[in-house]
Amino acid sequence: MTYRFSDEVMYADEDYQAGLVDGLANNIATALQRALDLVAIHGINPATGLVAAVAHYFAKAANGVGRVTATANEDADIDSMAAQLQAVGYTATGIGFDPDFAGKLSRRRDNNGQKLYPELGLGFNVTNFQGLAAASSDTVSGRQELPAVTTGAVRVRAIMGDFRAFKWGIARYVPLELIEYGNPDGLGDLKATNEVAIRAESIFGFAIFDPKAFSLVQTAPAA
To answer: 148 pLDDT exceeds 60?
Structure first.
């Protein structure tokens, strides 16, 4: 990942530069987490939104991961995911929602008008659901990075599973690199725009030990 700045930062005092590096480190950590989700769930290159040559990822067709076609009844979809996992002998340890799916669940009410799932709040910043560790993020659907739905495309709405069967790790961090010349990100020559760039790289890997330990809710293929 590459960040551009005005070259005036080169003349700033050391405290300002140190603060800039600290801010970058936080952004890099967030971007790395998002990149890992996008690759592991969708098999895509986060920079292009195109499917990369990844051997295994959760949404890959015919990979053994359980599938539930999304309906208008989110409760039933969740129950179907749990049933799929139980049928193959797995116990779910966590669940991830696309915020739209979590929001719809959060608005479900009983006959007395009481929320069925108050722990979901508005569907953002979710931490637990029905006794499971939970999270809500648009990396589940990849809606920001993946192209608009086209013929045959599906969208992941939720993922449940035994996440002990999924492991990831950082193989190598590449130190921050200051770039003062050239066109490192395809956005134009740095000198021509009075900018400098800072690049951060990391090499990470992941493994899905058993696809049957997971189940997805996904939309039906687009017509």
So the answer is: no
Whose tokens are 């696809």? That residue is 211
User: Taking the domains of the chain in order of start, what are their residue ranges?
Assistant: 2-218
CA dihedral sign, ordered 138, 139, 145, 147: negative
| Distance, CA of 135 to CA of 132 (rounded, Å) | 10
Label the pairing between strands 195-208 and 2-6. antiparallel
Token pair listed for 170: 């950082």
Give me the amino acid identity at 87.
A
pLDDT at 41: 92
Alpha-carbon distance of 4 to 185, in angstroms, equals: 9
Describe the crossing of helices 99-106 and 74-87 by its angle, rounded to 10 degrees: 110
- In this prediction the pTM is 0.78
Task: Count CB-CB contacts under 10 A for residue 5.
Answer: 15
Distance in angstroms (rounded) separating the CA atoms of residues 141 and 155: 6
In the prediction, which pLDDT does 173 show? 63
Q: Are 78 and 160 in contact (CB under 8 A)?
A: yes
Residue found under tokens 């493994």:
207
What is the DSSP code string of 51-111? B---S--TT-TTSS-EEEE--S-HHHHHHHHHHHHHHTT----EEEE-HHHHHHHHT-B-T
Q: Tell me what pLDDT residue 54 has.
A: 67
